[in-house]
Amino acid sequence: MACATPSFQSYASLPDELRLFTGQNRDLSLAMPVHARVTVDHPEIVQVNGESRHSFDLNLKNPITLKSASIGQADMQLKLFGKIPLKTVRVNVVPDLKVIPGGQTIGVKMKSAGILVVGHHLVTTADHQKVSPGEQAKIQLGDLIVKINGDDIRDVAKVAPYVNEAGKEGKPLKLTITRNGSTREVELKPMFDVNDQSYRIGLYIRDSAAGVGTLTFYAPDQGVYGALGHVITDMDTQTPIVVGGGEIVHSNVTSIAKSQNGEPGEKRAHLLNEGKVLGNIEKNTPFGIFGKMTDMPEHGLNREAIPVAFAEEVKEGPAEIMTVIDGQKVEKFAIEIVHVTRQDVPATKGMVIRITDSRLIEKTGGIVQGMSGSPILQNGKLVGAVTHVLVNDPTSGYGCYIEWMLRDAGIVLEPTAIQPQAS
């Protein structure tokens, strides 16, 4: 019965750890009709109810207001009647962080950090046998060829000269490949294809990928951006592409194929101003692509940076997304965050969202391909990005927390360790 009381439920919801940006306030409500003594080991970092004292009494019936004053960690301990330990909350204060939300549709052109194997090809030999030298060498789909005969290789067009020379000399190629994070050496002997009258290695290979997505944020103080909200994989092997370079450019939405149950739609777009690069591509992670961006991107709704939210701040309820459905115009549309998953470590699919804006549903049917990366805003803060659509219900989909994208962008959200004081 005690567990069902509002006071106990308020106590149970009190976290063991809180995170605040500098200058941010947070109210904790216990609604317990008792007095307690609060002790803060670093009141210069966190103030309780505006007090700079280490210890004082308060009434737990009233909300407790925490105000972050400087970067670091502080422990707040509560004792009932000044004697009985009730709760200790660790408060981590990190530097204030604001970014400019995106929403712009971008073209993505990415080079892999080697030559990606996407298939096996059969070579017709002089005795009319059909074999794949690459398959015989036990090269697998998704393998990344990073060196040929000790030379770095990233361009498909540069593979043929190595193959022809090795074939004419009757020597095997020495390939350095990476597979599942490990590197290995493989020998592959080209074979003469009587149909093509040329030497072949029996592999389908690719060195780049291109597509359309949405810019999530631009951090002007750090000069970096984040986009897409999910990893870019090769369309044939479904393996993540290891970045060897690339760039993002402006894109113009020309039309939209609407999503239907069982069939996700897509934005149809073409790249603009290919000579004007918005940013480079340095990372391709489970939370999107990241790189440097030196100037504020054009066509955005927000010219000023806004606060970001920690994962634990995101609540079920109304929110908005920013995206483009025509041309280059970024617009806001109403959504509902219908479920949040508490995540202490980075993980995808942090929230389930549902499109509630009738105009967006009429235009797109819900979430479509190319909308991934669209920023999610709640209560004036950037909280996440759209990542996937639910195929059987295109009005619903998943989002990731912005915190994980910011970490992958190299923007630190961890508190600075407290330095011990000399005595």
What does this structure look like?
Strands 9, 10, 13, 14, 15, 16, 19, 20, 21, 22, 23, 24, 25 and 26 form a 14-stranded antiparallel β-sheet that branches. The chain has 3 domains: 2-96, Immunoglobulin-like (Sandwich); 97-113 and 211-417, Beta Barrel (Thrombin, subunit H); 122-201, PDZ domain (Pdz3 Domain). A hairpin with a 2-residue loop joins β15 (173-179) and β16 (182-188). The protein contains 5 helices and 32 strands. The longest helix has 11 residues, at 159-169. The protein is mostly beta strands and 423 residues long. The two termini are 51 Å apart. It has helices at 6-12, 133-136, 159-169, 358-364, 402-408; strands spanning 17-21, 25-28, 35-40, 46-48, 55-59, 64-68, 72-80, 84-94, 98-101, 105-120, 123-124, 130-131, 144-148, 151-152, 173-179, 182-188, 191-193, 198-200, 203-219, 224-228, 243-257, 266-271, 277-280, 283-285, 288-292, 306-307, 317-324, 330-340, 351-355, 375-378, 381-390, 393-401. Residues 1-5 and 417-423 have low confidence and may be disordered. InterPro entries: PDZ (IPR001478), PDZ_sf (IPR036034), Peptidase_S1_PA (IPR009003), Peptidase_S55 (IPR008763), SpoIVB (IPR014219). This is SpoIVB peptidase. Its EC number is 3.4.21.116.
